[in-house]
Amino acid sequence: MCKQTIVEKVQCGKVLVSDGAWGTFLQQKGxxxxxxxxxxxxxxxxxxxxxxxxxIDAGADMIETDSFGGTSFKLEHYGLTDRVFxxxxxxxxxxxxxxxxxxxxxxxxxxxxxxxxxxxxSEEELYNAFKEQAxxxxxxxxxxxxxxxMSDIGEAVCAIKAVKENTDLEIICxxxxxxxxxxxxxxxxGVSPADMVAALVPAGADVVGxxxxxxxxxxxxxVKEIRAADANIPILVHANAGMPVLVDGVDTFPDTPEDMxxxxxxxxxxxxxxxxGCCGTTPAHIAAIKEAVK
Length: 294
What we know:
Layout: H1 6-11, E1 16-17, H2 23-28, H3 40-43, H4 45-57, E2 62-63, H5 72-75, H6 84-99, E3 104-109, H7 123-139, E4 144-150, H8 153-166, E5 170-175, E6 178-179, E7 185-186, H9 193-203, E8 207-215, H10 216-229, E9 235-240, E10 245-247, E11 250-252, H11 257-270, E12 274-277, H12 283-293
Parallel strand pairs: 1-12, 2-3, 3-4, 4-5, 5-8, 8-9, 9-12
Antiparallel strand pairs: 6-7, 10-11
């Protein structure tokens, strides 16, 4: 019997739960400032596996990978451009081990840091970078990619095309929005939720959504805009644990697991099909969201 795809699960009426933050977890495991997170998939495999395991144990239906900065453009900062395939394969294999045969691995692909509009990179160069990363993630056992924290349509479309034309992976793509002074949601490049949908669905995204930059409360508003633009596309939300506040010089995320759980039904009612966490969220947050979904 074949495992259902993520889209098939959503079409069956399931509300799925994703995982939470990875970066702070890696720091707790001992990762120092300036270290390459993706290199930990090889040099500290057990520590990365423990992070993935903790989210699966909390009830997540899917797990990301330690590969957010896994393109050649990001790995170049660490002198690791010749290890793109290796590190992404390792990242996916770790989460595959944690997920087992029944849960889904949604491999993380973050922005390159290069701007098409500034002319510091070409579409071909972006495409090739995302292609190399996607091939490694596919070989490592990913079921899907989560192209996340995007702000520019051109870069996101390059990533979608690279995955779609070179792998069989499902494609999730999420943008990060900020609330403007005129109470509109836009990315740093001026893209609205409706703009995102209009570009990503024809490009081949199977799931769209939003991550980072906002807590659950604001995500509800963004999801309503996405759902108004497309009545059928599955929507994923990875919300922060509230908006950060500075406490003793450290950004702290105030929303407790109970806070996020309370808002989960409203987020589902707005149109979200897959719910997880981003900055500030922990396995406890994911466990609480899972209970709210149940």
